[in-house]
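pls read this stuff:
=====
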Amino acid sequence: MTTHTSAVEHQDATTDQPEAPQPPHGYDADKAAYLKRLRRIEGQIRGVERMVDTDVYCIDVLTQISAATKALQAVAMGLLEDHLEHCVVDAARSSPEEGQAKVAEASAAIARLVRS
């Protein structure tokens, strides 16, 4: 049987101190707005499903898919901007190596977004 403990309950074996909480993500300040947008996109996807289920004209379905795709891309760009402004900058301030690692991570994410 596995037991789950929160970060507060977990004690560091070497110091017997609780683990420090993780810093918020770069998008933390805009989290509510992102969730609202994602729920709206989820509704768009359900609408596309209903369109297919009710045999709506192909071009109309494709138009809605395009709109949902653009909405997801907008969320992705916002998250990427937040990541660069917060996570990458914080890492670069911490050390050149951490900064380079975060830049490489961001570059890989950009490449995935561009390929799709």
